[in-house]
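Exercise 7. Given the encoded structure of a 116-residue chain, write a plausible sequence.
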């Protein structure tokens, strides 16, 4: 969840570049709301309780099976989506303990979207 906090800390830079930020987790809306309130997250955070989106996007962490407490966790990463709702870039890392920091995401997003 620290990546969500980093994105919030850098949200102004994303906004200045004209890039919207949206997050998604496998947590329930109630758990998400507690996190949003505690961390002051101001961008949309979506809940994918049944991992339907994670499965459809083929980013499901295969270390867990249905019934496990952690089932539904995606491999950590980001998609860059253009205004036509097409994925024009993605960064995903299998190691759950590794993340791309928000400034790296912003730089990659600008490059993928052709923003100077």
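Solution.
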């Amino acid at each position: 969840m620290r990546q969500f906090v980093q994105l919030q800390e850098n949200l102004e830079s994303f906004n200045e570049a004209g890039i919207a930020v949206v997050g998604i987790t496998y947590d329930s809306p109630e758990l998400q709301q507690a996190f949003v309130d505690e961390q002051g997250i101001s961008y949309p955070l979506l809940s994918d309780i049944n991992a339907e989106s994670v499965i459809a996007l083929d980013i499901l962490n295969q270390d867990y099976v249905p019934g496990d407490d952690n089932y539904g966790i995606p491999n950590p990463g980001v998609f860059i989506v253009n205004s036509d709702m097409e994925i024009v870039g993605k960064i995903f890392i299998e190691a759950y303990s590794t993340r791309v920091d928000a400034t790296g995401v912003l730089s990659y997003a600008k490059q993928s979207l052709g923003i100077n």
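Remark. The helical segments are 2-9, 11-16, 29-39, 52-56, 102-113. Students should compare their own answers with the one above.
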